[in-house]
Every structure is written in structure tokens, then in C-alpha cells.
């Protein structure tokens, strides 16, 4: 039996996280095992993450923070080369096709390189560097088999209650080359 839509049951709690019940976490994990784990093993994503990791290998921590600040500044601009490079990356088209095929279950997806920097995304993320966040630290840094599931929360960029599922991106040689975060529409799953 489906529960009433989360947005209707939460009323004024739009900004507060919803702590998923254990059954909800089981639903999220089951969906992720079926649909997100295979995505994280796609070679097109591994190749994109690997290429950017190598290309940006010389970045210092300050360079990364500067790029992150540049990304945040560009979110309100008409000209936004850093953001557009991520949204228009060829792997972003692959991710958008996956969102479309999910028929509402997936709200957005973004791919990170080995530094935790955005490579490709289906929509604008709040920041460019994810390397200091659990979605990267609990996946890329822990390797194969790792999965991070966030609390169900209202995402202002997608306008959905969602849980984010993050996994390491594994290439065909078994090497962790990046990470991926997939927003799952809680109203669709429950």
C-alpha cells in the first residue's frame, strides 16, 4: 500500500529532512541495487571520470576551492562556462537518457571524478566540488561495494523529496575512478 505523497504529509516541513523508516531504506537500497549499481559500472562514465581526474591531476586544494567558488558564482549568471561544460559533457547526455528511462523514479544524476569534482550532470548542483562530502568520502574513498544513502529531504534544485544514493564508479579493470550520485524521487518510490 502506498502512503500519501510525502509533500502532502509534511506540510510546512519542506526544508527539514525526513528520516526514512527502516522499510523506506530497504526500498531505496533495493531500487539502487537494481538500477544504480549497474549505472555506476558503465564504462562511458568510468572513462569520463578517469579522463578528467588525469587532466586535472595538478590542481592544488586552493585551485579546487577557487573552481568551486567560480561554480557558485556562475549559478546566477547568463554566461557560465564551468557549469555548461558539465551540463554539456557527452556523459551528461548518457545520464539524461537514464533519467528519462526511469520514468520519474530518478530526479537527477551527477558524476564526479577522482578529486570529487563534477564531470557531468543532468542539472546544476549547488557546488562543483563534492570531495568533502559524504557522497564522495563514503563511496570513492571506501571502494567497491560502498553505498551512501542520504536522508529523504526536499531538494530545492529538483523540487522533489528525494534520497540521494551515491556509489563509487568502477572501471572495467576494477579500479575506483570516480563516484556517482543519483537522486531518487521519494514520492515515486513510496
UniProtKB/TrEMBL annotation:
Keywords: Signal. Residues 1-20 form the signal peptide. This is Cache domain-containing protein.
Amino acid at each position: 500500500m502506498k502512503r500519501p505523497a510525502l509533500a502532502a504529509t509534511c506540510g510546512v516541513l519542506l526544508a527539514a529532512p525526513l528520516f526514512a523508516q527502516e522499510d523506506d531504506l530497504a526500498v531505496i537500497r533495493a531500487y539502487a541495487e537494481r538500477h544504480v549499481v549497474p549505472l555506476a559500472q558503465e564504462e562511458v562514465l568510468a572513462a569520463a571520470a578517469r579522463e578528467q581526474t588525469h587532466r586535472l591531476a595538478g590542481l592544488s586544494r586552493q585551485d579546487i576551492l577557487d573552481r568551486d567558488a567560480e561554480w557558485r558564482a556562475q549559478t546566477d549568471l547568463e554566461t557560465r562556462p564551468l557549469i555548461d561544460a558539465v551540463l554539456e559533457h557527452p556523459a551528461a547526455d548518457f545520464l539524461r537518457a537514464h533519467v528519462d528511462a526511469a520514468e520519474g523514479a530518478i530526479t537527477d544524476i551527477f558524476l564526479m571524478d577522482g578529486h570529487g569534482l563534477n564531470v557531468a550532470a543532468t542539472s546544476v548542483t549547488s557546488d562543483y566540488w563534492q570531495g568533502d562530502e559524504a557522497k564522495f568520502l563514503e563511496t570513492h574513498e571506501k571502494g567497491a561495494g560502498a553505498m551512501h544513502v542520504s536522508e529523504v529531504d526536499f531538494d530545492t534544485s529538483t523540487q522533489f523529496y528525494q534520497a540521494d544514493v551515491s556509489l563509487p564508479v568502477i572501471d572495467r579493470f576494477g579500479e575506483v575512478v570516480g563516484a556517482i550520485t543519483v537522486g531518487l524521487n521519494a514520492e515515486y518510490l513510496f
